[in-house]
Amino acid sequence: MPLLNCQFLKSYREQRLAHLVLSFMTMGYVWQRGETQPEEVLPRNLALPFVEVSRNLGLPPILVHSDLVLTNWTPRDPERPLEIGNLDLIVSFPGGESLRGFILVTVLVEKAAVPGIKALVEAVNAISQRSQNALLQALQRLRLSIQEITRTLGQMHDYVDPDIFYAVIRIFLSGWKDNPAMPVGLIYEGVSTEPLEYSGGSAAQSTVLHAFDEFLGICHSKESADFLHRMREYMPPSHKDFIEEIQSSPSLRDHILSSENSQLLTAYNQCVEALVDLRSYHIAVVTKYLITAAAKAKGRRPNPLPGPSQALEERGTGGTVVLSFLKSVRDKTLEAILHQHD
Hints:
Elements: H1 12-30, E1 41-42, H2 44-57, H3 65-70, E2 73-75, E3 87-89, H4 96-112, H5 114-128, H6 132-153, H7 156-159, H8 162-169, E4 187-188, H9 207-216, H10 222-231, H11 237-247, H12 252-259, H13 262-300, H14 322-334
Parallel strand pairs: 1-4
Antiparallel strand pairs: 2-3
Helix pairs in contact: 1-2, 4-6, 5-6, 5-9, 6-13, 8-13, 9-11, 13-14
């Protein structure tokens, strides 16, 4: 492979596409022989352009959520609605239709969040203008968006086979930080003589729930919050800036309590309840695709599918011990419910 020259990448879109392609090549290269024999050195003709493009974009040199999902779709017919039958992937891993479903359902989850993200902005403006009516409408739109995210996530069951996700797809999303399969990290040849550690792709790298949590004033446990904050380093800088902008805005909870407006309090609690429901549903999905699939794979060995990743059995691809993390995040969300006497 020739050493690629990043000077040819002119626009932001071209740089994002380059990061997408180089990240897929990197994951495919590192994990090509499975979890038991990962490559420990990324060759310089991959490492050098990948690190350069990453620095230009402010992203780490590993596959991130914004590669796998946000950059990796194209409509078959731009005139038709963005539904799963009208979408294609740009770059693929092994995993066939299940991989396509996993990525494109996640694309549609992000799309379902769009009205919610817009509602956050409207709500922040409504608080600063002290417009209770505009704030109430924005909170109602946020709740509807969160409920639509949950409904959309349900399409995973229609398009993704848990056994294929667990045994084939998941390894290619795994990183080299907090991963027993690659305890010291990966050497990027020509970049660093010491191995570098980066977390694998994770839904925690999506800006959406970070922004919702900051807006709704949800406080996570120290351990969960530390992981979530680390995941912000894996987002495009403009996304991280958006979260920080929401974080530094006047407190919604304080505003609602001081307003003594019962309609606002109810609308706020409905948003929090919708977020609890989404997180509970996500726990059920993760249980099916990770925990149950791991138990099935254990019982089936030796099997026709390649050996599932033993070191990753209890972990999400981002490196967390996944169920305890998700349950903690869900339970802390529930604690945010406001009572009139708070």
